[in-house]
Amino acid sequence: MHRTLYFIFFFSTLCHAQVQNLKEVVLKAQRIQSSIHPMSQTDIVQDSILLKQEIGELIQFVPSLFVSSQQNFSQDTRISIRGFGTRATFGIRGIKVLWDGIPITTPDGQTQLDHIPLSSIGTIEVLRGVSSGLYGNASGGVITLKSTQINNEQTLTATFGDFGTQHLVGSYGFKNEKNIFRVILEHKKHNGYRHWSGYENSLLALSNTFLTNNGNKLSVDYSYFNSPLALDAGGLTADEVKVNRSQARQRNLNYKAGEKVKQHQFTTRWQSKKWTAYGFFTKRNLDAKLPFEFGGQIDLRRSYYGLGIQKDGRKKQWLWQYGAEAAAQRDGRNRFKNILGERGAATLDQSERFYTLGIYGIVELALSDWRFRASLRADTHYIRLVDFMGNNSDNKNLSAYSPHVAAFYSFSPTLSSYVRWGTGFETPSLNELSSNPTGETGFNNILRPQQSQEIEVGIQLKTKISDASLTIFTTTTQDEILSYELSAFPGQDFFRNIGRVDRKGIEATANLFLNETTTLKLNYSHGTYKTQDGNDLPNVPGIQFNAGLNHLFGKTNLSLNIRHVGKRYADSKNLVEVPRFWAIDLYSQSKWGITTWTMGICNITNANYYDNIRINAFGGRYYEPASMRQTFARVQVQL
After folding, report:
1. Alpha-carbon distance 109 to 139, whole Å?
2. Helices marked H in 373-466 — which ranges?
3. How confident is the model at residue 138 (pLDDT cuts 50, 70, 90)?
4. Which fold has domain 2-638?
5. Domain residue extents for the chain
6. C-alpha to C-alpha distance for 98 and 257, rounded to whole angstroms
7. Global pTM?
8. Rounded distance, CA 607 to CA 437, Å?
9. CA-CA distances (angstroms) from residue 478 to 81, 267, 377, 426, 475?
């Protein structure tokens, strides 16, 4: 297998066809369609996306953004931005994710990326820092994904790699003056680097846009995601990693830990010159087995839906937008005993509801070389639980006002700066509220929302040969939520408020255009994330450094990426330090006739590092080792 992949890599370097380079498309995660944006906004365009295999690989080079659990497909990709989202035990918490302007984050702040087809992503935009003034609950950062432009084309793509990687994609696009249509079929299969870490899933995505004579657009999308297999190898102790880093935790094998997922999603968008509206409905069914007996099998039936409307305006030096968003989440949560992989008696049966309504307004004023921006958002949430096995039914009402102000100044056409102040809030998710450390049914009523205030200052220099920025931020969070485990329930995650957390950091980026064919990208972040006890927030690296060198050899694009992750801790008391690491990846892409060849070698130096850290895991089971060197080859055929 390795010889074949290296031959493809060498062959692609000799090809004489131009690599496709697409123009950058700015999404404006800041919502308002302004010509300025904070330096804490990062745009990733399709010529980079085409080289990678997962969304996490694309965004892990953003300053102060840390990606983990990219190789545990049962727990899903986890993302933290400036320490927000670090508590996630599966999926993403505390960060708002949007797909073509429609939130895929649930009303209570949970996000999974498993149903997003990488082949259809054209642009990714990351907005670092608290943004509740724009997007409401769980907006410690914002990630917006935008689809590629649909053209009249049909493609077949096949990817094969180490550890049994198989990824097959078929795409059909049709476009005329009145209608734009695309269908995507995907199938993925992977055996996993570690024992008991394989997965298999399939995806169908349909998109149709109707164009009217007056320039309005109506888009309707449907996707079906089916994952019948996603195994969880579990966390290991340091001694177990030394013996065999690719082994699975024996308890996870005994209890057959893993999950099955089915999801349907419908979305619709209406866009006119000034008005934009959307609606969505998602139904997700999860069957999970966890590595413990009491409540170790989960049957979760979730549906969430919502709608939103916004209007943009402009007059002379004024620019504004206002809108409203409403969403609802309905979880039917059942737990059963997990008797070595077999379902036992029920331990929990409850219905959970999360309703939210948000209204916001943004205004921007241009005065000479200054731009002043302000926004205010009001959100109200109603949370309800009906306990069918006990007398612990409950309901909560939570409200928040989120102001945001910013000032931008241009010293010259090449040099600009800004200062921004904003607030953020994050409610506990339904999963976190229902994880009751008393062992009883009902909500954990001790758990409170966390609230933040942030000040950010930035400066940017743009010239013909470089684009560099420097950002400094300080954030104070009250009632930070963090996960932990108990000896009475080994392997089960619970959550608590740990008090105040102070986040301070500096972020630097530089894009150097060395010549017409060579670009060097550098990203560096250095932060401190201190709890009120003086300890570091666990699993948040203090230092991250990334370098990417892209060069066009003839008509073959080569991309070399270097990543360094500094010191971090596995526990809240900072008694267990996670080793620092360097990782190097190499990618190549060439077009030859109707085919496009891509080759990747990840972790070239065989660095020993961890794909995920299980924070405060009982018994020292913190570590999920990442794979050693792995290679893949992809060919795309234009039919």
Report:
1. 8
2. 430-433
3. confident
4. Maltoporin; Chain A (2.40.170)
5. 2-638
6. 30
7. 0.91
8. 38
9. 17, 36, 20, 11, 10
